[in-house]
Write a structure and sequence with these properties.
The complex is a heterodimer. By secondary structure, chain A is mostly helical. Chain A has a single domain, classed as Helix Hairpins (Orthogonal Bundle). Chain A contains three helices and no strands. Chain A starts with a helix and ends in a 15-residue tail after the last helix. The model of chain A has no long low-confidence stretch (mean pLDDT 87). By secondary structure, chain B is an all-alpha fold. Chain B has a domain of 78 residues: Up-down Bundle (Four Helix Bundle (Hemerythrin (Met), subunit A)). Helix content of chain B is 79%, strand content 0%. Chain B contains six helices and no strands. In chain B, helix 1 runs antiparallel to helix 2 and helix 2 runs antiparallel to helix 3. The chains are: A mainly alpha, B mainly alpha. The interface between A and B is large, with 68 and 83 residues. Chain B: This is NADH-quinone oxidoreductase subunit J. Chain B: Its EC number is 7.1.1.-. Chain B: GO terms for molecular function: NADH dehydrogenase (quinone) (non-electrogenic) activity.
Chain lengths: 103, 166
């Protein structure tokens, strides 16, 4: 049977891939959101692994809530991107500097 | 048999996640994310979390990723410039973090065999726990979902509304 360590390592690798993806695609807001979803999936794998290890279903409830909140976050984020594209005709993150202090 | 399923879904998950992070084309990266969710769902089925695996496929692959795909098609997000000089630093960071976790797990001598959560009536037990012990949090999440739905509709519609008022 499979061991918990395999799943912990797998979720760690996927989480790190998500962080690297956020760093690589700093300009593209949609790609940042996708990499955040990847990181959430890694966290969920960890939750399910330890929930099975302890034979306790509360970890599955946590995964359920994480999925629901992530869906809400994606909907709001994409709506904001549509508005930003309407205004700036791009969703390149470098272009949104109007709140930055004028040096 | 089950080990093989975990191995295949794990390798597939890592490969498709790498494609999400590294692909320069947003549509390709959306489809890779869908693929990685499918592999995760296979893994969760193997662990006995049937309801969550099916919810992942129905809600995530079916609804949220379709929304992503819709936005990527609607907005012109192809070929944005990337931050290439930092790539080597990020990969070093990733290798260091993963390697240190691997070494920690190897040397801790922690051998924990996974068992499935008692497979009979997983969905029923999850529902009982959700509506008996966590009903307040279920209501809170429902309110958050409703607020996000109303908020995203208002965000996208606000220009036409304000034009009507002017």
């Amino acid at each position: 049977m499979i061991e918990v360590t395999y799943l912990v390592l797998l979720s760690c690798v996927v989480f790190v891939i998500g962080i690297v993806g956020v760093g690589l695609n700093r300009n593209n807001l949609v790609a940042i959101l996708m990499n955040i979803e990847l990181m959430l999936i890694a966290v969920n794998i960890n939750f399910i692994a330890f929930s099975n290890y302890h034979q306790n279903l509360e970890g599955h409830i946590a995964v359920f809530f994480v999925l629901a909140i992530a869906a809400a976050e994606a909907a709001i984020g994409l709506a904001i991107f549509v508005k930003l594209y309407e205004r700036y005709h791009s969703i390149q993150a470098d272009k949104f500097s109007s709140l930055k202090e004028l040096a | 048999m089950l080990d093989l399923v975990f191995l295949i879904s794990g390798v597939g998950l890592v490969l498709s996640a790498l494609n999400v992070a590294l692909s320069t084309h947003p549509v390709r990266s959306v489809f890779s994310l869908m693929l990685s969710f499918m592999f995760t769902a296979v893994m969760w089925l193997g662990l006995g979390a049937e309801f969550l695996a099916l919810a992942l496929i129905f809600i995530y692959v079916g609804a949220v990723m379709a929304l992503f795909l819709f936005v990527v098609f609607m907005l012109n997000v192809d070929h944005l410039p990337r931050a290439l000089p930092r790539m080597a630093t990020l990969f070093m960071l990733g290798i260091i973090v993963s390697g240190s976790v691997y070494l920690l797990l190897e040397h801790s001598g922690w051998q924990a065999e996974l068992r499935k959560v008692s497979l009979n009536e997983h969905t029923r037990q999850l529902g009982l726990l959700l509506y008996r012990d966590y009903w307040l949090w279920a209501e809170v999440v429902a309110c958050i979902l409703l607020a996000s739905m109303v908020g995203s509709i208002l965000l996208v519609k606000s220009r036409s509304l304000s034009q009507k008022n002017d």
